[in-house]
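RECORD TYPE: inverse folding
INPUT: structure tokens
STRUCTURE:
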């Protein structure tokens, strides 16, 4: 007898222990760990989905009558042994439910809401199988779950590459769908229908004739256009039984194969060669050594990555290259594609669910040996991993905010141990955690200290805005910055300007009574957007009209405070009417491909100034950009977060690094109201090492990472008092669990206490070693499910990157 261990998906009743099910005789030869299945659950007739994580032949010791596996949802496993083990580790490490970990490794398309079909790829199969498929060579997977013999035969087809599983969107308004028409008119029945028509119904006659010519399903819109019919005509024809409609997911465009010129490996500088050789040595030895590549901006880190990847491929291994979503610009993708061509698979949020699934399949079947992608690409099912590269390793977007709250770096290190392959973490401004590990020798340090082409790092002018703003005609531009912009533009060079706030004004206040217009759902002021003439909440998306009288005192003295990218764009239009400005922020990049279009236009010098939020700080490599201006360096400094200096330093260094990357020298102007702040001062001097030393001292004094570990607990309710109460009771419990050496901060309301009508309270545990803590939190995770029905949401977050 065979038994399956199944992790079931039962909301609010999750457990990380598998349930045992008996495998019915007919499924024995089909079942495999890593497949999804349907099983009966609980006392009634409830059916739930699950993952088979193991098979055993031993009868488990139980008095209960074991239930049987109901059906298999896959023909072949969707997760291999590595994936199953990774899920085990991730659930433990990130205090997550195993089911969430398993699901997170699969493309969205394979989760709920999609219809599964088998597609026949080879028509040369046994007739009794072939006849199951419709004229599109498709078969509902449902048919198989009802007939296990068939499922077995189809599974064999898939193994031989004669059939494959595909997913089609079901009831999803968002997905792009197209309607096909299938004609029911044949030479045999045409006259019968024609006889029923009135003599003068010439349009209907014509439609009948046209439908007769339709021998296979055609696109409805195309049919209408070509033959001059309207949707109403077709609807009537449908009612008359002349045709059928069918909806299909729009055809997935394979990645638009733009013309990318192949590139050859560059001759490495001595420093670059040194980095490549150290990593390839580890690669050859099958060592899972992590490396930290600390290279100043423009030092040629990407070329180092590419040549390491080439070595891995030459050894018959595969490579995974991770980049932050925001930096996943066409530039980096093109650089990888131009070197490795069709071997590259791409995984990022800009792809449709279908495109992502297609890329995932290519990887799974070994057709792609280089994967480039953002956070979730870390789960790419590469079987022969030779190297993992994580560019801009300090980026906060590498940490996932929802369960499982994993950090990509931790998963990368886990996979490298599994595959015995090196990991390269790269950055101009490594996270303090990583830099400290390199200090201790846990990571091996690699350094690129010079820019390519012998360019020095750009000169930085720090402008004290407390003084400069008084002299300037506009509040947001100092005369110094304006003057430099004019001079660089006169030389036909390009300028990048960064301002860390989108919209027009950051808030609206009544000057009579001080009333500030806030979001009704969140505890945050609404931002004025001039382009759409709306007030918007940047947390929940709430929008409303721009008020002209105060809601509180009815005064008309309403004023808008603060500056956003839209307002700066308007100022630029006045100050420098000749300059062509492109704006890049969340609002201008919402449409698919917008990001690419803006950068392409800027690269082709269709604009002089690129103005944007921090999304322009990273990865851009434009040779004609010689001036970078930071309009307000302080926005990230004032965040109530112990990492605010680190974040400020990183951001300023990154954005400064956009200037002077080719053979023209670059300049940077940083405007600040806190010019004495050490993070700003040291960023101006490009002095990462001194910043590291100084910041480490502070962290040591204050007891923060990397000296202490942190875990954040957050409770949210739709009732503020209850959220607070829950946190106080947790604190009391924790005091019993923790040793006196651990420190509990809070409970405190989060910076924005109310978001989307819920109230958030948090507490932070700082500790070095706590014997009881892990077990307590795991238990807390399970117990908190019971309270979820009453509206409580509890979040356990290990090593949080944000304390907002
Ligand atoms: P980083 O990622 O460190 O900021 P990049 O990899 O973008 O730097 O390199 C900066 C520029 O130098 C790029 O235009 C790149 O093509 C070029 N480059 C890199 N390595 C070399 C090399 N060995 N020889 C010539 N040019 C190089
Ligand atoms: Zn008022
Ligand atoms: Zn809101």
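DESIGNED SEQUENCE:
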């Amino acid at each position: 007898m065979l038994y399956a261990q199944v992790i079931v998906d039962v909301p609010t009743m999750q457990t990380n222990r598998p349930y045992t099910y008996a495998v019915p005789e007919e499924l024995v030869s089909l079942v495999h760990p890593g497949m999804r299945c349907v099983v009966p659950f609980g006392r009634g007739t409830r059916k739930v989905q699950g993952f088979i994580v193991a098979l055993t032949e031993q009868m488990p010791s139980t008095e209960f009558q074991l239930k049987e596996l109901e059906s298999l949802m896959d023909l072949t496993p969707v997760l291999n042994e590595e994936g199953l083990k990774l899920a085990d580790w991730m659930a433990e490490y990130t205090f997550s439910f195993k089911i969430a970990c398993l699901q997170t490794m699969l493309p969205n398309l394979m989760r709920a809401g999609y219809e599964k079909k088998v597609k026949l790829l080879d028509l040369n199969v046994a007739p009794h199988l072939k006849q199951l498929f419709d004229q599109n060579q498709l078969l509902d997977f449902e048919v198989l779950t009802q007939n296990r013999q068939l499922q077995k035969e189809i599974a064999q087809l898939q193994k031989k590459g004669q059939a494959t599983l595909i997913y089609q969107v079901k009831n999803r308004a968002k997905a792009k769908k197209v309607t096909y028409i299938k004609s029911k008119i044949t030479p045999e029945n045409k006259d019968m229908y024609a006889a029923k028509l009135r003599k003068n119904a010439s349009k209907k006659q014509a439609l009948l004739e046209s439908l007769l010519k339709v021998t296979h399903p055609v696109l409805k819109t195309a049919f209408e256009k070509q033959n001059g019919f309207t949707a109403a005509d077709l609807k009537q024809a449908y009612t008359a039984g002349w045709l059928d409609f069918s909806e299909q997911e729009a055809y997935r465009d394979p990645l638009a194969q733009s013309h990318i010129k192949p590139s050859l490996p560059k001759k490495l500088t001595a420093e670059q060669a040194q980095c490549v050789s150290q990593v390839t040595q580890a690669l050859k030895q099958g060592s899972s050594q992590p490396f930290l590549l600390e290279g100043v901006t423009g030092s040629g880190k990407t070329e180092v990555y590419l040549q390491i990847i080439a070595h891995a491929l030459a050894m018959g291994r595969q490579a995974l290259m991770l980049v932050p979503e925001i930096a996943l610009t066409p530039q980096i993708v093109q650089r990888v594609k131009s070197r490795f061509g069709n071997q590259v698979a791409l995984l990022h949020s800009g792809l449709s669910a279908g495109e992502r699934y297609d890329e995932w399949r290519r990887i799974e079947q070994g057709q792609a040996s280089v994967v480039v992608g953002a956070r979730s690409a870390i789960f790419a099912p590469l079987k022969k991993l030779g190297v993992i590269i994580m560019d801009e390793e300090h980026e906060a977007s590498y940490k996932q905010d929802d369960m499982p709250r994993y950090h990509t770096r931790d998963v990368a290190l886990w996979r490298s141990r599994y595959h015995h392959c090196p990991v390269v973490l790269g950055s101009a401004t490594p996270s303090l955690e990583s830099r400290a590990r390199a200090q201790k020798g846990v990571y091996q340090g690699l350094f690129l200290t010079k820019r390519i082409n012998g360019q020095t790092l750009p000169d930085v002018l720090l402008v004290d805005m407390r003084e400069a703003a008084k002299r300037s005609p506009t509040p947001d531009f100092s005369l110094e910055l304006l003057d430099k912009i004019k001079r660089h533009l006169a030389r036909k060079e390009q300028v990048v300007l960064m301002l860390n706030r989108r919209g027009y004004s950051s808030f609206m206040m009544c000057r009579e009574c001080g009333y500030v217009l806030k979001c009704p759902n969140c505890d945050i002021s609404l931002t004025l957007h001039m382009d759409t003439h709306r007030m918007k909440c940047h947390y929940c998306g709430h929008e409303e009209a721009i008020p002209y009288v105060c809601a509180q005192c009815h005064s008309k003295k309403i004023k808008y405070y603060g500056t956003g990218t839209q307002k700066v764009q308007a100022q630029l239009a006045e100050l420098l009417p000749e300059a062509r400005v492109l704006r890049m922020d969340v609002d201008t990049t919402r449409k698919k491909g917008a990001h690419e279009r803006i950068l392409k236009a800027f690269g082709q010098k269709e604009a002089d100034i690129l103005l944007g939020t921090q999304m322009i700080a990273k990865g851009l490599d434009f040779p004609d950009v010689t001036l970078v201006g930071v309009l307000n360096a302080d926005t990230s400094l004032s965040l109530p977060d112990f990492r605010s200096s680190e974040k400020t330093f990183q951001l300023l260094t990154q954005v400064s690094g956009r200037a002077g990357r080719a053979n023209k020298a670059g300049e940077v102007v940083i405007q600040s109201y806190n010019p004495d702040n050490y993070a700003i001062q040291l960023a101006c001097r490009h002095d990462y090492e001194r910043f590291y030393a100084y910041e480490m001292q502070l962290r040591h004094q204050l007891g923060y990472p990397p000296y202490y570990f942190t875990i954040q607990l957050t409770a949210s309710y739709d009732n503020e008092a209850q959220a607070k109460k829950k946190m106080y009771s947790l604190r009391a419990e924790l005091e019993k669990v923790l040793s006196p050496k651990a420190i509990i901060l809070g409970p405190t309301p989060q910076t924005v206490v109310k978001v989307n009508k819920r109230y958030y309270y948090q507490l932070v545990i700082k500790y070095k070693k706590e014997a009881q803590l892990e077990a307590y939190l795991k238990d807390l995770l399970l117990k908190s499910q019971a309270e979820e029905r009453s509206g409580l949401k509890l979040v356990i977050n290990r090593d949080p990157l944000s304390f907002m």
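NOTES: The first strand starts at residue 3 and ends at 8.
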